[in-house]
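FAQ: What does the model actually see?

It sees only this:
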Amino acid sequence: MTGGDPLRLGILGGTFDPPHYGHLALAETARVQLGLARVLFVPAGDPPHKPGYPLSPAVHRAAMVKAAIADHPAFVLSRVDLDRPGPHYTVDMLALLGKMFPEAEFYFLMGSDSLAEFPTWRDPVGIIRQAVLAVMERPGGNADLDRLEREVPGIRERVVWLDAPRLDLSATDLRRRVREGLPVRYLVPPAVEAYIREHRLYLRGNGDA
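And it is asked to produce this:
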């Protein structure tokens, strides 16, 4: 970037329980396609859309993200949600990041399945005022922009589509695979797999139902 160009930052939020290659492929596609200086990985502290969800402790999820992104200089772990009381909403997280990076232009990375449900989020208009939505197509994620525009006026101008590979990976399925003794190699980075094994995550009676 040169001159007065704004600092372009990507924001990828999630429980990251565990982080997998789908997350990394989305982040790298956005970084290159949108010319992002950095992508912030923001583990959720207390996600309001998953009440009662048996999250692994934050210390493990943050450590796995750190391990997953360690070899990429443009990927950064952000504790903006972990270091404050919940519940945690995207609109509030963006406001806090805006104070930390007042000159930045934010791109919020998400799947088309999440975009389809976007009107149900806390203050969706407030979100699109603070960030462009950078969206990747996901299986079953049919986002109707005409409907979204009616429900969240202005959203059409704040959506960009990413040419990301459609990796049908889910943390829920990865936890099941670990629990059932199935391999997760080639689905998560080696350092994440090693961390899961070392700390015996996702086994029955050990943090996952």
